[in-house]
Every structure is written in structure tokens, then in C-alpha cells.
Amino acid sequence: MPETKLPTPDAAAYAAARAHQNQLTKPTGSLGMLEDVACRFAGWQGRAVPRPPKAAITVFAADHGVTAEGVSAYPSAVTAEMVKNFAAGGAAICVLARQHGARLEVVDVGVASPLPALSGVVSARVAPGTRNLARTAAMTEAEVDAALEAGRAAARRAVDAGAGVLVAGEMGIGNTTPSAALICHFCALPPEAVVGRGTGVDDAALLLKTRVVTQALARLPAGADARAVLAEVGGLEIAAMAGFYLEGARLGMPSVVDGFIAAAAALAACAMAPGLEHWLLASHRSQETGHQAALARLGLAPMVDLGLRLGEGSGAALVLPLIASALQLHAGMATFASAGVTDKA
Ligand SMILES: Cc1cc2ncn([C@H]3O[C@H](COP(=O)(O)O)[C@@H](O)[C@H]3O)c2cc1C
Ligand SMILES: O=C(O)c1cccnc1
């Protein structure tokens, strides 16, 4: 796979935005992370006063052979059923996309059972789910490449549709298991520090899930590159999300990273293209064990902590109004000079 060459955000526009923030009628720094968000959008758009972006949400769906081990509280069949629910507009992410007027596309990267043609669902099937990573490599590297490309193509469609900020979500019963393995690998953490309850498994399944991750990681050869790591312990939708982030950044478009699975995909993508993290914003702190460590490794601070553990891109969608407020405050507030307010001494 050719190395992705990424642009760098515009440092001059970022600095101009920071200077502008310091002129606004508020104590310096008092809008906290909203100030950083506005300045980072300035860097991404190359203008001191960035325009409010339209958001596009892409949900990648795929199944996981590892569900045969009993690592999820829900059966694999839910993945396909939820894709139908996405098409019918009934999932959490559908409600949030409608609320925010965001484009929503669902991409089938490898749901186990073939789906009928569904409105809003793009078929980019690589395989009928991954193989069971408890016992064997989840994917071949060719499958990883195909999934990465499915994600890249989806990012191009979102940008072509006029998006100024991208959101990747996922649906894949069992996917917190490969995500935990990826986070362990890229953060050099033991499974006990990363594996969580996902959809809500009991203590016995949590132990089993931890053992599965330990066994899968033991197969990784020393010095395996990100593609090989994804093939061994990853997932089709996770690889697609990585491709989506990479292509977004290549096109100069930032992505809001959702929860645990998104963080795992972002870590893999950053390993493929250092500097990608400069194009990412973290929406929230997930309840899932190990998410905080993954964000720390990415150098990202979550905007909110709402006790979420859903996925689908829901956390990222929930912060879109905060991003809009950050940019409106940046553009709309008076300066000390314009309002005749005395600045600090
Ligand atoms: C009805 C339903 C809707 C969901 N939407 C997202 N997830 C989330 O839960 C799954 C990961 O958790 P685990 O690894 O424990 O299976 C993923 O599909 C994720 O998107 C859902 C899960 C369910 C059951
Ligand atoms: O944080 C997430 O993305 C998450 C956590 C649990 C289950 N599904 C998703």
C-alpha cells in the first residue's frame, strides 16, 4: 500500500485565529476547548475565521467471526438487522443525523448475511465477515486493503457531497474485541487495561474476551506493520474507518473521532500516516475501558463525557452543535476594541 502523504493544517491561520480569540470580550481562555476547536478549524480551512462546516456521517457495517467465542452480549444477526434499521431511519445515529441535517450513508463492508438493496446503504462487501481472530488471522492483507479502499471511497463521496467535517461510525456485533486488541497493540497496554464490557457482557464473558485478546495478540510477529496488525486482529469496518480518516485528511478534511472502535481505527490509521492526528478531533470519552488511553495516545482530548457506550458515530454527531457554537462564537463575538470593553492590564 502506498504511504499516504498528508497536508499539514495551516499554521498561520491557526495563529491568526488564536490571536483573534484573545481579542474577544471574555477572559483569555475562558471558552476552554471551544477556543481550541475554533482555532483548529481555522488551521483546517486556512482562514482565521472558519466557516461553519456541513457534516457528513458514514456508518461502516461488518461482522466478526470472533462472536463464535461469546464475546458480545448480542448475537451476530443484530448487525444485519441494524443495517435495515439504519435504512429505515430508526437507529440512534439516524435520529441525530436528521436533527443536525447531516448526510448519512451506511456502507456494508462485510455483513455476514447478504442484504437486500436498501436505501442509503452502499454495498462494498469485502468478505462475509472476518474469520475468528481467537484462532486465526481475521483477514488477509488483501482484504485489509479492500476495506481501506472502501473507507477511502466513502470519504471521497462525503467530500464530494460538500462535507466540511467527517464522521465515521460503525455497526458490527463483536467489534469491541478487535478494537481492544488494536488499542493494546498500538498503546502497548495489557488486555486487562483495555478490554471492556462492550454491549454489556457479564464477568465470565469479560474474562473470556480478555483471554481471546491475549491469545490473538500473542500471534502478532514483532515489528508487524499496521496493515499486518489489522489483518491479524482487526475488522473490516475498522479498516474502512481507518481508510476514511486517511482519505479525509489527504483531502484536507477533518474527522470527528467517535468512541472506542473509532479510536482503534484512528490508531491504526495514524500508524500508517504519522501526522493524521492533526486532522482529528475527539468527540467524547466512552465508558469502554481503554478508551481514555487510546485518546491519550492519539494526543486527543474528548470534548464531553456523557457516559456513552453506543458507537454508530453517535458521540461524534452529538458534539456537532458544540462545534457549530465554537465557530459562531469565534465569528460573532465582539472584540474588546469594537465593544469598548477594557482589556486586561
Ligand atoms: C442493538 C444494537 C445497536 C448498536 N449500535 C451500536 N452498537 C455497538 O455495539 C457493538 C459492539 O459491542 P460488542 O463488541 O459487545 O458486540 C457494535 O455494533 C457497536 O457499534 C450496537 C449494539 C447493539 C446490540
Ligand atoms: O465507545 C464505543 O464506541 C462503544 C462502546 C461499547 C459498544 N459499542 C461501542
Describe it for me?
The chain is an alpha/beta fold. It starts with 10 loop residues before the first helix and ends in a 6-residue tail after the last helix. It folds into two domains: 11-51 and 328-339, Orthogonal Bundle (5,6-Dimethylbenzimidazole Phosphoribosyltransferase, Chain: A, domain 1); 55-322, 3-Layer(aba) Sandwich (Rossmann fold). The protein is globular, with a radius of gyration of 20 Å. Helix 2 (33-45) crosses helix 13 (320-332) and helix 5 packs across helix 9 (236-250). The protein contains 14 helices and six strands. A six-stranded parallel β-sheet has the order 3-2-1-4-5-6, with helices on both faces. It has helices at 11-21, 33-45, 77-88, 92-100, 141-160, 176-187, 203-218, 226-233, 236-250, 260-272, 291-298, 314-318, 320-332, 336-339; strands at 55-62, 103-110, 121-123, 165-171, 255-257, 280-282. The longest helix is centred in the middle third of the chain and has 20 residues, at 141-160. It binds alpha-ribazole-5'-phosphate and nicotinic acid. The active site is at 312 (proton acceptor). One of its GO terms (molecular function) is nicotinate-nucleotide-dimethylbenzimidazole phosphoribosyltransferase activity. This is Nicotinate-nucleotide--dimethylbenzimidazole phosphoribosyltransferase. It comes from Crenobacter intestini. Pfam families: DBI_PRT.
